[in-house]
Design a protein that fits this description.
Blueprint: H1 2-22, H2 26-42, H3 51-55, H4 62-72, E1 85-87, H5 94-107, H6 111-117, E2 119-123, H7 126-137, H8 146-159, E3 160-162, H9 168-172, E4 179-184, H10 200-209, H11 221-230, E5 232-243, H12 253-262, E6 263-270, E7 283-290, E8 311-314, E9 319-320, E10 362-366, H13 369-374, E11 379-381, E12 389-390, E13 395-396, E14 399-400, E15 407-409, E16 412-414, E17 417-419, H14 428-437, E18 441-444, E19 453-456, E20 462-463, E21 468-472, H15 478-485, H16 488-498, H17 512-516, H18 524-539, H19 543-560, H20 565-578
Parallel strand pairs: 1-2, 1-4, 2-3, 4-5, 6-8, 12-20
Antiparallel strand pairs: 5-7, 6-7, 8-9, 10-21, 11-17, 13-14, 15-16, 18-19, 18-21
Helix pairs in contact: 2-7, 4-5, 6-8, 11-12, 15-18, 16-20, 18-19, 19-20
Length: 582
């Protein structure tokens, strides 16, 4: 009986390997991958989203895979010394397949040896793991013997496994502690969306796995990057696709700093284009090399690691950018300046002399869910409202379009949205919040091409998320604060420092903290003049006159920051193009 079962099992394995060999064509692999993704789309997960969205299963286009592998191998002479490579979120194996072929091509090592001894992968999706193993086995040459195929299949069964790569026990099952390369496209799991937000237990596990560096609203991909870096041997390379928000999001700041304590940034890439046709997300690519001195598994905050000679590329064609004089350190709050000019920001934007900031003159607040939903029961339509509800769609440059344009709020379209103050009488927290907001202030829109601010001089308007509310320390500084926010210099710096944090390419989205860190003009007299022009713009209704005033404001504001000559010209052109004045 035992012998019969063994023979049947062997026959089944041979049939399986034969089937894999027959479907080795790229078209067959792509068809199987598409079928699997379609199946994930039809299955529901926690939060009511598809299982595909919950897993973050969006497989990487071949061109992007090839670019990251090329960058990861840049300058590597003794490839075999790296030992092995891991994809901690391997999906159907796109990165592992491409890396296997490139490794064999460069080293002349037999494909079978590479597959059996060097390839490692982990994924939560059992079907994706099966597809990855099949795709890897399909790389074996047609003349490969059944014995070798079996040996490779057995190795892949041990080395490409189902599990959570953030779990140390799962990684231990691979039998390898350190890898020469870690590469891939980890799942993007936004912590601001119900369907992908981590449970409390998951959040605790992520915090433990990353020594507390991944916190609050940092995308789930950030945890994979840090754990991947910890898995590298000294001088090992990591190449990851990441959400573009990783470069500048405040909640990912601790993770970026931790990454640079472990490794140096070797290469970076991003693009205006979306690379994933089935996901509304823009991405970047980063390549890091682990420090030869970084051997520990715990935090190494005593050393301030800084990268040098970061290679840069941009766009769907991966066009190389010229050498960059700046590289991020653990002290820097953003990596976006590496691609500032590619995103359209003039180089002078980050060269303005640092002195006083908006935080010296005002406070800023970004409200959140409690305030957003707290207003829902009090929303009314009232053309003569004493408490008009103002949204980001209403705010233009020095202008409030309330009552002029329709807005959609809580699934209803309204022309005159307002808040019934009496309806909030039984909500003490909302009443207290409303009293704080119903004062003279500057409202700042988000997701804009330039900094769009409007002065609520009377203090009647009620701001709706995601507007930023800026309140000057002194009432006399109201218009000066507004003019400082609306400056072309601030817009240029916002793009240079925080490109990628907005929903659309090239748009500006600042947090309250980031806004308060922006510089104020150094020339007090010209700052006052820019405030006077800004106030005049807010009262002007004739478009031709308004356009002329806008140009005057921009130039005076730039000069107030000390810009002149080429710097002035570049910043003005940047701002006029975005403001559609050019």
């Amino acid at each position: 009986m035992f012998r019969c079962s063994s023979l049947l099992a062997r026959r089944d394995r041979c049939a399986y390997l034969s089937r894999v060999h027959r479907r080795s064509e790229p078209e067959s692999t792509a068809t199987a991958e598409r079928a699997h993704l379609h199946a994930l789309d039809t299955q529901r997960a926690r939060g009511g989203v598809s299982r595909r969205k919950a897993l973050g299963a969006h497989y990487t286009p071949p061109a992007l895979v090839d670019h990251l592998i090329h960058e990861a191998l840049h300058g590597v002479r003794a490839l075999k010394e790296l030992g092995s490579f891991l994809d901690p979120a391997c999906g159907s194996g796109n990165f592992l397949v491409a890396m296997t072929k490139e490794w064999a091509r460069r080293t002349k090592e037999p494909i079978a040896s590479v597959l059996a001894d060097r390839v490692y992968g982990i994924d939560l999706d059992a079907e994706a793991v099966r597809l990855a193993r099949e795709a890897l086995l399909a790389l074996l040459p047609a003349r490969t013997s059944t014995k070798v195929r079996e040996r490779v299949a057995q190795a892949l069964a041990l080395h490409v496994i189902k599990g959570d790569a953030l779990d140390a026990e799962v990684r231990a099952r691979l039998g390898v502690c350190e890898f020469g390369m870690v590469l891939g496209n980890p799942p993007f799991l936004s912590q601001l969306k119900r369907g992908t937000v981590a449970s409390r237990s998951r959040a605790r596990a992520v915090s433990v796995a990353t020594h507390g560096a991944v916190r609050r609203y940092a995308d789930g991909a950030t945890a994979f990057l840090l754990v991947g870096l910890e898995c590298l041997k000294p001088r090992g390379r990591l190449a990851f696709v990441m959400p573009i928000s990783f470069l500048s999001a405040g909640d990912a700041g601790a993770a970026r700093a931790r990454a640079l304590e472990i490794a140096g940034l070797n290469a970076i890439w991003s693009a205006h284009e979306g690379f994933f046709t089935d996901a509304n997300v823009r991405v970047c690519g980063v390549v890091l090399e682990r420090d030869r001195l970084s051997r520990g598994r715990g935090p190494t905050t005593s050393r301030q690691r800084q990268s040098t000679s970061v290679r840069r590329a941009f766009g769907a064609e991966f066009k190389p950018l010229s050498s960059c004089e700046w590289s991020p350190s653990t002290r820097d709050s953003t990596w976006s300046p590496l691609l500032a000019e590619a995103f359209g920001a003039p180089r002078t934007a980050i060269q303005v002399a640092e002195g006083a900031t908006l935080g010296n003159f005002a406070s800023a607040t970004a409200d959140f869910r409690d305030q957003y939903y707290g207003l829902q029961s009090a929303l009314i339509e009232d053309p003569r409202a004493v408490a008009p509800l103002v949204t980001t769609k209403h705010i233009d440059f020095a202008c409030n379009r309330w009552g002029v344009c329709d807005v959609r709020i809580f699934r209803n379209t309204r022309r005159h949205p307002a808040i019934d103050l009496d309806a909030l009488s039984e909500q003490p927290k909302m009443r207290a919040w409303l009293e704080q907001r119903r004062t003279p202030k500057v409202l700042v829109a988000t997701q804009t091409k330039i900094m769009e601010a409007w002065v609520d001089e009377a203090g009647f308007a009620v701001p709706l998320v995601p507007l930023l509310t800026v309140q000057p320390h002194r009432a006399a500084d109201l218009w000066k604060v507004a003019a400082a926010i609306a400056s072309p210099v601030v817009a240029a710096r916002a793009v240079a420092l925080y490109a990628g944090s907005a929903l659309s390419s090239g748009a500006i989205k600042l947090s309250a903290k980031q806004l308060l860190a922006m510089p104020t003009p150094s020339d007090i007299a010209l700052w006052g003049e820019s405030a006077r022009i800004f106030r005049q713009i807010s009262r002007e209704r004739v478009e031709v006159k308004r356009a002329a005033l806008l140009a005057d404001f921009a130039e005076v504001s730039c000069r107030a920051h000390g810009l002149e000559g080429k710097s002035l010209h570049e910043t003005m052109q940047f701002w006029k193009t975005r403001a559609r004045l050019a």
